[in-house]
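A quick aside before the break. I want you to see a complete sequence-to-structure record at least once, exactly as it would be stored in a machine-readable document. Don't worry about memorizing anything.
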Amino acid sequence: MNVDSNNRNPNSSAPQSASPAVPAPRRLRDVLRDQTQAAILSAAEHVLAEQGFDARIQDIAARAGVAVGTLYNHFGDRDGVVAAVLAQGRADLLNNLDAALDVPSGDWLKDLNQFSQVFSDHWRRHGALLAMVVQQPRPAHIAHCDRQAMTQAIRQRVRLVVRRGVECGALRSEIDEMEADLLLGMFWGMLARTLIDGEQGDHMSTAVSLFLHGAAQPPRLDQVG
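That is the input. The structure line, written in tokens, reads:
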């Protein structure tokens, strides 16, 4: 006797399609905690950019619209806030570089420009704080950033971009890690120019152009041969 598959016995042992798991809703307390932390970090970035590493914790709390005690509850003390602001900036930059690398478009030059744009966007959002960090030495007790490790993490990503350019034939086959480091150096140089000039120009595109074409004028037709 045939049984219509649309009228199966619900108590039979045949496997049933499982309903997709629905994520448990977040507790309101957790949502409010995250929102409060985000507000404190945003306020701290602005106050630190204005006042430096000696920024008053009262000013950070006031800018965030929270009590000083709330700030202590979330980050322990001012140094904890400073460390969290710097850590968030580093994580944001690396995450955005990774996002630019994750899905190659098939057009390497487009991908290179998108990758370089991450640096421009990061500086545009956090330039005031980064300028303060560059210009003002950090007290030893809040120097939590391992700059060498951060630089190495960025270098690995720049080298991946360059390696992809070689693999697709957009760059010469003899290009190696030294050229990748030169590209990274150009990025840093263009950011330094922004810091010195105090203006937001299309400096990353200039860096990409210099890397691809050099700085020399092309030979004139009357000089060829």
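Two observations worth writing down. The two ends are 91 Å apart (CA to CA). The chain has a mean pLDDT of 82. We'll return to this after the break.
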